[in-house]
Give the backbone structure.
Amino acid sequence: MRLIQTIIIFITFLCFLIDAAIIPEEPRRRSPDDINGKRLGPRGKVRRPRMPGHRRKKRDEGMPKYFHEPGGSQLGNHYDTRYYHGIQDYADRKDTQLHMLRAYLTFFHENRLESWLAHGTLLGWWWNGKMLPWDWDIDTQVSGSTLKYLAEQYNHTHYDYVSKSDPPVKRTYLLDINPASVERERGNGNNIIDARWIDTTNGLYIDITGLSETHPEDQPGVWVCKNYHRYHTTDLYPMRETMYEGVISKVPYAYDRILTQEYGERALALTDYQGHRWDPIVKEWLQKSEEELEEDRKEKEAADKMREEQEKRRKDKEEAAKKKEEAEEEKKAQEQERKDREKAEKEKEKADKKAEVQRLKDQQRLMRDKIRKREQS
């Protein structure tokens, strides 16, 4: 009985295989959307066949911007939106920056974390070991490894600061590490700043950017940030320990070369800038008085006027020289035209004389022929 059932199952399976081999597959009907057997997409474009396991690539838009500023003006871009309560005046802003920087340097020194001054902050140190009074930016840098360590150990740290002044100033600062700091390439440009030291009282902050050897195989010893600033290891190390605003800080080894490459030699010599003048006696950048600013404005207007007059005289001189040149060219052209005309007239006269001589010769020859014929007759 079991043998008969096995035979029936085998015969049934064999018939199924025969039917599958004999009956052809019904061809797919072509729709009007088909072109030469190729299926059109929703916009009328021919769809390309996908390989097995293929997935459509999504556009990489990178991480969204992490730090936000209130904006509205250039000064508004120097505050963190979370703690912004309005733009501070000159004196309050200088006081805020002073304590913020001292707290930052103290925190890094106490925790044996390496950070150094950069950009305009480094330029201020070069002049007198202080911040440039017109500079709203405070910039520092750290190595990529320090940045990673900060993110792992100190992210969102609130640092309570009490100044040694009388009366003491009390502030709380937030060390906020950008989640996009793990990416050491620029990406979409939304997260160039890797971290910030933020004054929670008013929103002013210190920008912290990381430097990394992003291509050690091709460019060993070249350190870059996300804003395309490049440094060599010998430019940075060994770090120099110094004082900045009365607090221990660090600056790159080749600070002079770094500054001249970024700002030019003029930045190390210009003593009048942004409504401030350098006083070599007290070694300070002093804010100019209203009278001095008014005098500067008048001097600038006079200089601009003189420059405009000089530019006008230069253009008039160039125009006169151009007209003189054009007149000389015209005169030369006319002289050449006269010479060409005289030459043509002489050649014509010469040709006419030659033709007249030939005509006379032809007449003489005809007369001789006539006389010869008469004599022969």
